[in-house]
Amino acid sequence: MGAVDERAVGALLRRQMRPLLFFGLLSLAGLVAMSAIAARALLGSYDALEAAAARQRAEQVYRAFDADLRQLAISNRDYAEWDAAQEFIDKRDPLFIPGNFSGPQLLGMHVDVVWIVDATGNEIHSGYVERASGTLTTPAPREILEPLRPFLARVDELRHRRPSEATVATAAGPMGVSATEIARSDGSRGTGAVLLFARFIAAAELQRVYDASALPVTLASLDPAALPPQVGRAILDGTVEPFVAEPETSHRIASFAVVRNLAGEPVAVLRTEAARDIHAIGVRTTFYLIGSVAVLLLAFGVICILLLARLMALQQRDFESRRNAEEQQRENRRNLAKQARRDFLTALPNRLYVQTRMPHLIAKMADSGRMIAVIYLNIDRFKSVNESLGHASGDELLRIVAKRLRASVARADLVARMGGDEFVIVASLLPDVQAVERLARRLRAAVAAEVLIDKKSLNVTASLGIALYPSDGLDTETLLKRADIALHQAKDAGRRCHRFFSADMDAHVNQRAALEHELRGSIGSRQIYLDYQPIVDLRNGRLVSLEALMRWRHPERGLIPPGQFIPVAEKCGFILELGQHALREVLAQLREWIDAKVPVVPVAVNVSAIQIERVDFVKLVKRLTAAAGVDPQWVRFEITESAMMKEPEKLIGTLQGLRSLGSKILLDDFGTGYSSLSYLNRLPIDLVKIDRAFVRELSEGDRASPVIPLVVDMAKQLGLKTVAEGVETAAQAVGLFELGCDFGQGYFYSKPVLARHCRSLLEHLDHKGRLTDSAVLRAVSG
């Protein structure tokens, strides 16, 4: 390149310097102004976020308060819809009132006032218990009862209103009320009489709200003049949002929840407060932002000056070299892009290629009237191939499967490896679902054909999930997602099969994801707790042990069955935290009973196979029992038969370690998988639990099920004890005893109860008595 070209380039650069310098200064001024505006907006957004969080705390307190009053309504309905209560209205048994509504019993239910009125409005009984002294006054003072009278006529309305709305302001303070018509438990007969429970909203109630919400709670004044302006307006105007936040100082912010009665009138104001952490973060963030912007602006100015100086000094340049370099870069990018869309191991297209290619294919097929099948294929139990034969053999298997899949479809169809042992087949121009069905069977047969690797014969199978365009989705992301959902359904169905996507699968996945998210937040909170169900000796009816059963009481959904959340916890890994939580709770409860001189019995804890696989479970048990000061002999461990069937050899060592500590092992749900009977004489277990499905078949004169005598006889030959689950009738208990079963568990003896109720059952052991109905009733109502 000649000197003329060099001079021309230099002149061009100098002409460009003046506007660039002006533009740089203008940009600098604009950035300064924008930084100031952004800082102000950022601080305002933090304050808005703080207010929203404070209102959320108010709502959280309100929900906890509502849940506490819901327990009052539950207790009221339990007594009102009780056959004994209905019989009392008819026969007026004089022992009914002192037997059920004594001072200690009312205090135990957190009930301050009980009022029974017949169908004509005449009072049958009323009582008021003084919390501090425990003194029961009957009949209750009129000044306490009169504010409650309107609720007697609104029984039906109360069933459909929130418990927090059934409140009333009295001279002695706000009260929560529940009223229910007294009727038989099956609803066959109503008496017209009403049972009313009421409790003052005092320090104990606020403490329970604090326990449930983990937020400090107080009652604020109902006088609007004594409250912040926004709270006062919320009290006076029922249309205003009932949850209000108001900063009190630069460091504290208060949250208020207005409680209104059935008429919409304010009854109480719940107040909680917290530190203004978000505001403080906003102030710091804004300060750092302004400082960072200042540094960036300074650096920007310096860089601009250096760049301008560099450009001014640049006079010569080899344009040919730059063109060659740019061309080489373009060629390298093309090669990298091509490699990025190809799987190195199988030479098939990869996920990136699928996501790039499928939109074009969908657009091409949009008006053809033909369908596209998107098939997710997964090799069943591929992990075991890697573990048993090695990763080199696993890679060879993937290459063979890739070639077979490619040979099983048309040339225009797409076969790609998405990663691991997952493949995607995109087949177009298919006339109908029957053609897709035939393709799926052909792909499964191709994978299932015998494979020879290193002179070893190997047979594998595949699971397939299928989504169809346009019925299951109109874009790449939706079709791939729904094919993957269908694949998981095929796996859940036992593998070695294929499943077409359906709308209910998507709903199931969404529900499961929501449950998983809510379960994550509940672990370690008071939502997760334990019930205890007695296990009884069938010979004499005595309580010999307990089973700890995990419960989840969701603040909005209520009690969620273990059958719903335990499988979710196992699939997403939360079962490890839940299992440790249950074991710690049981050990803490045993320690509490032992310290209180309560006669304890062994408590069984359910253990997932995942807990034993992923942690050193024996070491964990030794550490936790030592920390709690509880002998491991008081803890038993239950593991299901299906878990034993997965990899029994791996579990045997752990179970032997637990027995060496002094704990006993129970095999749960036995009888549901006959294939494990051959392992029974090798397993380190002490008791076999017979599944409730077989116990349910037992009735008066019916001994049709052959499983129970088979399991009992086999257990006796091996020196094991047997426990029957789901005993619900006397006929079942007698039948199990006659068949030689040792222990029983079920509603016939007792439903699962809370620890405080279980303590009464344990104290009953001192009298060496049977676990009778009256003993259970005293424990539950105590």
Short synopsis of the structure:
With 782 residues, the protein is α+β, with helices and mostly antiparallel strands.
Shape descriptor reads globular
Largest sheet: 8 strands, mixed, barrel
Strands of the largest sheet, in order across it? 18-19-21-22-23-24-25-26
SS-based structural class? alpha+beta
Give the oligomeric state: single chain
Describe it.
This protein has 782 residues and is an alpha+beta fold. The strands form five sheets. It has an eight-stranded mixed beta barrel, surrounded by five helices. Strand 25 (721-724), helix 25 (730-738) and strand 26 (743-744) form a beta-alpha-beta unit.
Task: Show the helix and strand layout.
Layout: H1 3-80, H2 83-91, H3 96-100, H4 103-108, E1 113-117, E2 123-129, E3 136-137, H5 142-145, H6 155-159, E4 167-170, E5 173-183, E6 190-200, H7 203-213, E7 218-220, H8 229-236, E8 243-247, E9 252-260, E10 266-275, H9 277-313, H10 319-340, H11 351-365, E11 371-379, H12 382-389, H13 391-408, E12 414-419, E13 422-430, H14 433-448, E14 451-453, E15 456-458, E16 462-469, H15 476-492, E17 498-500, H16 503-522, E18 528-537, E19 543-554, E20 558-560, H17 562-572, H18 575-595, E21 603-606, H19 609-614, H20 617-628, E22 635-640, H21 641-646, H22 648-660, E23 664-670, E24 687-690, H23 692-695, H24 707-717, E25 721-724, H25 730-738, E26 743-744, H26 755-763, H27 773-781
Parallel strand pairs: 16-17, 19-21, 21-22, 22-23, 23-24, 24-25, 25-26
Antiparallel strand pairs: 1-2, 1-6, 2-3, 4-5, 5-6, 7-10, 8-9, 9-10, 11-13, 11-16, 12-13, 14-15, 18-19, 18-26, 19-20
